Amino acid sequence: MARSPSRAPVAASPAGARPRAVLPALCATQIVSWGIVYYAFPVLNPRITAQTGWSAGATTAAFSMALVISALAGIRVGRILDRHGPRIVMTAGSALGALSLLIMAGAPNLPVFFAGWMPAGLAMAAIFYQPAFAAVTRWWGEGRVRALTVVTLAGGLASTVFAPLTALLAEHFGWRGTYAILAVLLAAVTIPAHALALRAPWPPAPPAPAHTAAATSASAARGRPFILLAAAFTLSGFAMYAVVFSLVPLLTGRGASTTAAAWVLGLGGAGQTLGRTLYAALARRTGVTTRTVALLAGGAATTAALALVSGPVILVMAIAVVAGTVRGNLTLLQATAVTDRWGATHYGRLSALLLAPATVAAAMSPFLGTALAGALGGYPALFMLLACVSVAAALLAAATGPRRRGRAVPTPADTTR
């Protein structure tokens, strides 16, 4: 039986380089940051539009703008993380996030509401998964997969905790009061956690792996494998988020109740948590290109199944769980994509560059998915198109390995020993 595939070498963290407070602090701040800055908006948006008269399209555009800003700012943030570590970046991001929520809470008109989301986008780049992943990758070294899994499992609880909490607060304080309360909570939890728990010395960057000539982040980012992988993640990100946003209308359009559709969506989230617990075992048993292609193809298969299977509801729920499992694995696949191929030397910047187009695609997916569903004649046709997009992503990922005389050759990450 083949043993674990070797991955791109990452220097092991020296003794004492894994400060004990980092992992619990990042777990707490990921729950609070995602729950407040990201998941509170879809809960509050119906109240915002009802009370202000602003259109849902306009307010959602402000939110999408923040995601685009986050993707672009993340490149610069990644470079700072590589050089100086996460403490200053994540602490400043927490303060900026709280300020942005206060601006939105007091916004007298739509332009000011948009202005509030601009610093929120910068905050997202500084406090969401990417800086947390950079911290874990550098401090945990070869033990990063388990630590990354813990952080993403905690992050997965954000909507579970804050969606109902936000709804409860909104019933008593309105959307403006809720945003003000959440701003105080964000500042009270995340600013001291980032400032105090991330004080450990930042370990020096490990050397670039021997199997690649990418000695600098610029040379790696210009390479064919990097460009193809970025394109694959962009297509996959668009398809994945369009599926999530379109699942409820797909099911209700087939006659399911809103409650049943919500259960299916929720079970997909449960599958996502399950998938994250399985990634470490998958990484031990597969090469990096193999698992990338397999997971992207799995996304295509589950999306096509949702397009074709209209019932019974228990079968649809089972498909949703499998689809969520694939999505959960994809989160960790993206978190480890750089280290598995190019090492951790320039992890922050390369990871931001790799995932920035995917973040933009995810931001645009609700609008484009709805428009495509109308143009194609319904959501089943949209899901079939999204399955084809995921197939294209898998094919691009399959071409990311080095090639010799027109044929792909395995990298150290794709061989067994």
* Shape designation: globular
Counting DSSP H or I runs of 4 or more residues, the number of helices is: 15
Percent range of helical residues: over 70%
Calculate the terminal CA-CA distance, rounded to whole Å: 10 Å
Structural category is: mainly alpha
Mean pLDDT: 83
What is the string of helix and strand elements?
HHHHHHHHHHHHHHHEE
In terms of DSSP E residues, the strand content is: under 5%
Structure in words:
The protein has 417 residues and is an all-alpha fold. The protein contains 15 helices and two strands. A two-stranded antiparallel sheet has the order 1-2. The chain is globular. The relative contact order is 0.16. Residues 1-16 and 404-417 have low confidence and may be disordered.
Task: Map the helices and strands.
Elements: H1 22-38, H2 40-52, H3 56-84, H4 87-105, H5 110-127, H6 129-140, H7 144-155, H8 158-197, H9 217-221, H10 224-253, H11 258-285, H12 288-308, H13 313-342, H14 347-376, H15 379-398, E1 403-404, E2 407-408
Antiparallel strand pairs: 1-2
Helix pairs in contact: 1-7, 1-8, 2-3, 2-8, 3-5, 3-6, 3-14, 4-5, 4-8, 6-7, 6-14, 7-11, 7-13, 10-11, 10-12, 10-14, 10-15, 11-13, 12-13, 12-15, 13-14, 14-15
